């Protein structure tokens, strides 16, 4: 068996310890004589898996009691519709457009009400986060929406926008559990787990209780109503059970690493190695404004598409996989999520140095 350093943006690298544990428990989970994939979601064993997962997530993020944690399906993209369907009481919302995911979310919300794009960084290919200290927040906006870490472009909100009292909704898919968060600053925090937490198929929604109501837009399906899942503790129907089990293991792994403060420290240390190299490289260049750099997704280019392609190909041969940039940016992107070891980033930088020498 040989594992590569996997820089994929998602689905992405998971902690090896978690994968080994899951493998060891595949045929017989905890004396049940069956795998978690095969058991009833109403069984005692699964009930313990989901309640423990929720409690560990609450401990890690310090989630207050007046917030619900929901384990749902449909990926992050389903939330693009579920958020307006459940939250647009005035049929109006403000969106800050910092990349493709926020753009898609805004477009979807337009099906349900008036969408005001109160800030955008599209003028410079989403290479920065706009100043959000004094935005023209709409009087009647039901919420202000952000994508906190822009997976494709490699930018991150280092400060949350001033929403002038409006509910903040954040897509944190690609920065989930990468650093401490102050949950109370948000009305809704959600993310697909396949970037930083677990297998595709689970989306976690952390939502303040007063936002969970029966007063949703007419025609909202039962399955797309937050209240359905909150009332049933995420067991209204069969949940993505195996995925939740893996998420639970990742929460335990993060706890064992020292929690979110420790994760942040490790992530900063990893990102610094790569950014420091990029800042002095003659061949490679980072593509975003320094102050807005993500700790999780690091896009870079040589400025020559053929050389970029050569780099991606040779890196793959050296065991450094999935470094090709998103089709809308080109170049390269290294996603260095929680589970990417420090050694993986060092190996990447060593390879980049060598490539630079050979391709002057
Ligand atoms: C990947 C990603 C999405 C889309 O996730 P799906 O689960 O595939 O719908 C949305 N937002 C962000 C920030 C992402 O990184």
Strand content: 15-25%
Domain unit count = 2
CA(first)-CA(last) distance: 36 Å
Strand order of the largest sheet: 2-10-9-8-5-3-4
Number of strands: 14
Low-confidence stretches: none
Order of helices and strands: EHHEHEHEEEEEEEHHHEEHEEH
Radius of gyration using CA atoms only: 21 Å
* Molecular shape: globular
Decide which structural class fits the backbone. alpha/beta
Helical segment count: 9
CATH topology of the largest domain: Aspartate Aminotransferase, domain 2
The second-level CATH architecture of the largest domain is 3-Layer(aba) Sandwich
Main sheet summary: 7 strands, mixed
CATH level 1 class label of the largest domain = Alpha Beta
- Overall pLDDT metric: 97
User: So, the CATH homologous superfamily of the largest domain?
Assistant: Type I PLP-dependent aspartate aminotransferase-like (Major domain)
Helix content: 25-40%
Hetero groups in this structure are: pyridoxal-5'-phosphate
């Amino acid at each position: 068996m040989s594992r590569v350093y996997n820089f994929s943006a998602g689905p992405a690298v998971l902690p090896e310890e978690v994968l080994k544990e899951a493998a060891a428990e595949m045929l017989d989970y905890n004396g049940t004589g069956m795998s978690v994939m095969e058991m009833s979601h109403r069984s005692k064993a699964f009930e313990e898996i989901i309640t423990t997962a929720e409690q560990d997530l609450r401990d890690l993020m310090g989630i207050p009691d007046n917030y619900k944690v929901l384990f749902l399906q449909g990926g992050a993209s389903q939330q693009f519709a579920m958020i307006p369907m459940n939250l647009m009481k005035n049929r109006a919302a403000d969106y800050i457009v910092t990349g493709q995911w926020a753009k898609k979310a805004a477009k979807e919300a337009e099906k349900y009400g008036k969408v005001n794009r109160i800030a955008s960084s599209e003028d410079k290919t989403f290479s920065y986060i706009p100043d959000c200290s004094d935005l023209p927040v709409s009087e009647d906006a039901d919420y202000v929406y952000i994508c906190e870490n822009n997976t494709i472009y490699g930018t991150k909100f280092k400060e949350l926008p001033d929403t002038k009292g409006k509910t903040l909704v954040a897509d944190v898919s690609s920065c989930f559990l990468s650093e401490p968060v102050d949950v109370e600053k948000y009305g809704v925090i959600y993310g697909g787990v396949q970037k930083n937490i677990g297998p595709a198929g689970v989306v976690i929604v952390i939502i303040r209780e007063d936002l969970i109501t029966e007063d949703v837009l007419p025609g909202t399906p039962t399955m797309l109503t937050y209240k359905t899942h909150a009332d049933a503790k995420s067991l209204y129907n069969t949940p993505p059970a195996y995925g939740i089990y893996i998420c639970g293991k990742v929460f335990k792994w993060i706890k064992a690493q020292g929690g979110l403060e420790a994760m942040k420290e490790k992530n900063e240390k990893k990102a610094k190695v790569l950014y420091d190299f990029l800042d002095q490289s003659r061949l490679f260049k980072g593509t975003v404004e320094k102050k807005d750099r993500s700790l999780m997704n690091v896009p870079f280019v040589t400025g020559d598409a053929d050389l970029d392609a050569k780099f991606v190909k040779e890196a793959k041969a050296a065991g450094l996989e999935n470094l090709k940039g998103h089709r809308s940016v080109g170049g390269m992107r290294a996603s260095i999520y929680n589970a990417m070891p420090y050694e993986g980033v060092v190996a990447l930088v060593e390879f980049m140095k060598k490539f630079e020498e050979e391709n002057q």
